[in-house]
């Protein structure tokens, strides 16, 4: 496993992290908590030091599983990055778990409350990184979320502040780095072989201000593992029914065909490993956080770190839509 500093002000992290959305037990099909904890333990055994989660993943369940594993083996150098802003606490209509529909809430009061709840679930004295969770731009144009991050830092409840950039808004929201680079230590960005919008404006600004970049959705919901085809269907509460609709899936698979020369250059590596290597090849990017539900998936993902970045001249261009 290789390591790097997350920007100029961030902590030291592994170049491949652990994305903990799926282990929350919602939106990714069926999960087993014991298998999830084995996957987390395997990640730590492989040298992973960045675990990315959010309060809304499983309505706190992802954070709780991470806390169980950390309590058993000690936190050590592990950096836990969580998120807040998708409010599942105070909605009016409750489900059978006591929570209502998710809504975006970015008031100063709410974000401080949400951070305190994450502190309790994770069982830590301070959150290593708290990220605003992909808010709409109008929420970020107000002062309150930024004042909340400043207050949480001053109070010692968070060590670093981050922003998860809303998907497909990378260029539109890049100006936020100009406005708030004194607060932001890291950003989390949707970026992969088939989605490279962030390269245009966002990445140059991140490098200018020394802001760390965490790459999310590096395997495009599993498509870049090579296991999907045009007949793939998603069922139940699996969010990929929407994010990888038949039309979107067909478009991505057409693009993927054009990446074949890149995969062919590395016959000893899986598609997933090559795809993850791409995500840590851009000079602005520090770490990628593929999701994993099993120890085997973790081992496959972590191997990409040892192979290292791909030379830029070997990466095929991506055709614009």
- Straight-line distance between termini: 36 Å
The CATH homologous superfamily name equals NADP-dependent oxidoreductase domain
Give the total of beta strands.
12
Binned strand content: 5-15%
Key features of this structure:
TIM Barrel, alpha/beta, eight-stranded parallel sheet, 15% strand, 12 helices
Summary, kept brief:
With 321 residues, this protein is α/β, with parallel strands linked by helices. The chain has a single domain (3-229, 269-309), classed as Alpha-Beta Barrel (TIM Barrel), CATH 3.20.20. It is built from 12 helices and 12 strands.
Explain this structure:
This protein has 321 residues and is an alpha/beta fold. It has a single domain, classed as NADP-dependent oxidoreductase domain (TIM Barrel), CATH 3.20.20. The chain has helices at 33-45, 61-73, 108-122, 137-140, 144-154, 175-180, 202-209, 240-243, 246-257, 260-264, 271-279, 295-307; strands spanning 3-5, 12-14, 18-19, 50-52, 79-84, 86-87, 103-104, 127-133, 158-164, 186-190, 212-216, 287-288. The strands form 3 sheets. It has an 8-stranded parallel beta sheet, with helices on one face. Strands 1-2 form a two-stranded antiparallel sheet. β1 (3-5) and β2 (12-14) form a beta hairpin. α1 runs parallel beside α12, α3 (108-122) crosses α5 (144-154) and α11 (271-279) crosses α12. The radius of gyration is 19 Å and the shape is globular. The mean pLDDT is 92.
